């Protein structure tokens, strides 16, 4: 389970996130939504130990990320903009991650097959399409067979078949009793995947709850999103 409590981070005195709090529960997919600049990326970076909060906590299974004994076996993550060395082969990228986390080599081939990349595993990443790179990033997140997945825009660059694959993967992951936190700008796809929704705007949580409760009275998740965020960019934050 992911528990975020009063999470606050300032840059130059300006709050990027301001008292953010929510829970992503086991057995459920939690959609994490917000306009550009709302504080989503900052929250994810704080959760994954890439930045330190000024106040509050972000816990995965009751621990801060930096206190996890085997991080990749506990949480798998895909952050938008993060990627492998372009000159490295796809299989070598995953093998390096596996070795550094004491994950058996056979797991590399399992996730390559799961991500539909077995036929291109020997190619250098610089020759991959955007969709192939995205699949490789998801494969890396799955390497440790973690209890928690944190994915930022996982369907970016994927074709319809790839989008369906991600949707089924996340639904199956949650159905097995594990936790999924999904950050996305795609309202329709989130509505078809998520059980719960967190909406953030201006560095603060505007709404948090089951998808049907957030959408109630608005007709759709997209309409609810615009009503909650004022139909514009963030009021503050990074």
UniProtKB/TrEMBL annotation:
One of its GO terms (molecular function) is ATP binding. It comes from the Bacteria. Gene3D superfamilies: P-loop containing nucleotide triphosphate hydrolases. Pfam families: ABC_tran. Keywords: ATP-binding, Nucleotide-binding, Transport. SMART domains: AAA. Belongs to the ABC transporter superfamily. PANTHER family: ABC TRANSPORTER, ATP-BINDING PROTEIN. This is ABC transporter ATP-binding protein. It comes from Planomonospora corallina. The lineage of its organism: Bacteria, Bacillati, Actinomycetota, Actinomycetes, Streptosporangiales.
